[in-house]
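Let's practice the habit of predicting before peeking. Look at the sequence and jot down your guess about where helices and strands might fall. Then scroll down.
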Amino acid sequence: MRFYFLMLFFVSVSACHYKVSSDKPETLNFSITKFIENQIDSLEYEQIPLLKTGSVGQVSDSVLIEKPDWKKELQAFIEADISNTSRLNYYRVDSQYVNHGRVKVLFTTTNDNIPVKSMKIISRRNKIISLEINIVKENLVYRSISVLKYYPKQYYRIKTKEKTSIGKEEEFMISGRFIYP
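Done guessing? Here is the structure:
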């Protein structure tokens, strides 16, 4: 009897382990750095111009950049990579199937000292369709909340709210729309 109980326990524990199959997205083994570097390579190869908009508060300005430095444009996403094994241990992973074959995977930090609070990846048919990263940095005199969004082959947006202990809260945003011919 004890043998059957141990066997049942072993089977149920091993069934709980998430295994990526070929028909499901590989978002649990996802590297932001590799993904963004592949996007950079593609954008550079296709020579895609960028319509970049920057705003501070209510004032904004746009410029068309014919040959953008894609590594510089998307560097914030690379810096927010949580796929490092030592960092990944501090994240809870929740995944769910959403409508029309979409899968949402949400990484949420379990450690208050880590600035990348969450990362949400939405994919369909093994392709990432959106990436959202929430970052909070704070100390005694400063607090910054950033939301980074990336939609492959479409656009990116980095929105930041900053507040110092002696100043008012300010909001900054940088967005880039990819201009395909």
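How did you do? Residues 10 and 140 are 49 Å apart (CA to CA).
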